[in-house]
Amino acid sequence: MKISRRSTKAILFLQQIFILSAFGLLTIQNGNLDFMAIAMGVALCVFNLLQYNILKAAFRHMDRFVLLAAQFLWSVGIIVIYRINPEYAFKQGIILFGSTIVSVIVMLVIRKSHDFGKWNWLFMLLAIALLGSTLILSKTIGGAKNWIDLKIFSFQPSEFAKILFIMGSAYFLSTREKLFSFFPYILFTGICVILLVAAKELGTGLLLCGTFLILFFAATGRIFLTLIGVGVFGVGAYASYHIFSHVRTRVEVWLDPWSSYNDQGYQIVQGLMALASGGLFGVGLGNGMPNVIPASHTDYIFSVIGEEFGILFAAVVIVFYLVFIVRGMLIALNAENIYDALLVFGCTCMLSLQGFIIIGGVIKLIPLTGITLPFISYGGSSLLSSMIQLGIIEGVAIKNGKKEEKELRMMGADVL
Amino acid sequence: MLDSIYKIMATGMRFWFLFLAILIVILLIAVSRKEYRERKAVLGEIGQYIGYLEIVGGLPEAQGTRIGIASENTIGSGRGADIVIRHPSVQRVHAMIYMKDRALILSPLTKGVTQINGRRANNAYEVHTGDVITFGDVSAKVFIRPELERIV
């Protein structure tokens, strides 16, 4: 008896066609031949193919579908970023290459590790230090004080604090039983969220709150306590609405962006108009006007996709996220211990919630908070942190696969 | 000139991109679903096994093969047997092996040779991990999952 692996050649082939036809189209953009575009397309194709095949050969039990979904997402991202500004696309490509190496290292570490034990306290302190450092050292980009400039490059510490938060959560929720022993963890979450809100980084704050509640419920199964948590979150949100003026502005702009069109509502209105002008099928790659939307290559990339490729295509992009989430959940359900399960579940939750918060903000479903769209948006820290989370998910998948193979071998079956 | 060609091409190709994206996502879902189901079926079947028989003698071409045993199986050379061993010395329904009160029992069903560790078995006997059982000329080693076996 054997478990055979299905071929994914067709998916990879279609993905290559997609990338090449998009970059082929971009080659004749702006009325002159831009051979850099096609070079970029070929480079991206080669990168995706090599990455997939090398990883598949190196880690037999890797979950290939998670990787394929992520590959499609970042390919769409690089196409759209190239169309907005080719220079950013090159940078994004280099970051993608670097963060693939980092994610492989993460896979190797996760594959060997159990929970990190006492190290988790250090991780939690580091997370608080990272978030605290933004308040002191940072410069302001886009209204939020969340970037640290290291002269050569600048980075967003909160992106890495997120991952440390998941690791701390998984450790506490898998090792503690009594409610009282959760106290340090709840305190840690509170400090993180307060630091984020103080740094005007509402999106990440919301993300941590949401992930905390989902993880807490998933790990303990206590409905009443989770509802109290939701209540505390509501009170906190209401309080910050009254205390911080920037929160108030966000909500007012969300309720009626048109009245402050020339000012704070400009971004939302431009994003909505872009989506509206795109309609179901879009105006065609390169025919839209992404340059009138502020932050079109980072936070607002979804509205550019909606404008140029159409809202149907944007919905397909969301389906890719769903595939990613479902595969992530399956890996979490298969994990051999609770720590691994919560780690993967946390990463999956965080990526999906992040997607929801920014897409919801762009389409004016919820108040807009500036965070990036995982894998698609331009941004080194964001892509790197998404890739680290991908690495964690794959690392646990490899661990599961090994355990399963051992079991199968024992009973005379095999995995091909 | 090139500009207007580009405009037309871009407008036309949006359907192509949508088509490709939908095709990729459908393939992705279909392939992963198929693989998942297959995996689940195999794992489910293996989960039912309480142990295995490893062929150790009499069948050189199948030496070392592991055959999963469920909680009740008949062994023989006939098609009706749960575990089929094709060998002239094995009877059509040769023996039966089953779990009872956390013990694996081997019970001969015919006059053919059935041995446990080289001694002829005429009645039902309990077998343990590591025992070698012989049907005709074919012998196999027993392995029972440690968590299922009664500690003697």
Please tell me about this protein's structure.
- The complex is a heterodimer of chains A (416) and B (152).
- Chain A has 416 residues and is mostly helical.
- Chain A has 15 helices and five strands.
- Chain A has one domain.
- Chain A is 72% helix and 4% strand.
- In chain A, the strands form two sheets. Chain A has a three-stranded antiparallel sheet, with helices on one face. In chain A, strands 1-5 form a two-stranded parallel sheet.
- In chain A, a hairpin with a 2-residue loop joins strand 2 and strand 3.
- Chain B folds into two domains: 48 residues; 95 residues, Tumour Suppressor Smad4 (Sandwich), CATH 2.60.200.
- With 152 residues, chain B is of the alpha+beta class.
- Helices cover 31% and strands 32% of the residues of chain B.
- Chain B has one helix and eleven strands.
- The relative contact order of chain B is 0.14.
- At the A-B interface, strand 1, helix 1, helix 3, helix 13 and helix 15 of A face helix 1 and strand 2 of B.
List keywords for this structure.
heterodimer, A: 416 residues, mainly alpha, three-stranded antiparallel β-sheet, 15 helices, B: 152 residues, Tumour Suppressor Smad4, 2 domains, six-stranded antiparallel β-sheet, 1 helix, 31% helix
Rg for CA atoms of chain B: 27 Å
From the spread of the alpha carbons, the general shape of chain A counts as globular
Mean pLDDT of chain B: 87
Structural class of chain B: alpha+beta
Major sheet characteristics of chain B: 6 strands, antiparallel
Number of strands of chain B: 11
Task: Walk me through the topology.
The complex is a heterodimer of chains A (416) and B (152).
Chain A: E1 2-3, H1 9-27, H2 35-58, H3 64-84, H4 86-112, H5 119-137, E2 139-141, E3 144-149, E4 154-155, H6 157-175, H7 183-198, H8 202-220, H9 223-243, H10 245-255, H11 266-278, H12 301-309, H13 311-334, H14 338-362, H15 380-410, E5 414-415
Parallel strand pairs in A: 1-5
Antiparallel strand pairs in A: 2-3, 3-4
Chain B: H1 2-48, E1 51-57, E2 66-69, E3 72-76, E4 83-84, E5 95-100, E6 103-108, E7 114-116, E8 119-120, E9 125-127, E10 132-135, E11 138-144
Parallel strand pairs in B: 3-4
Antiparallel strand pairs in B: 1-2, 1-11, 3-5, 5-6, 6-9, 7-8, 7-10, 10-11
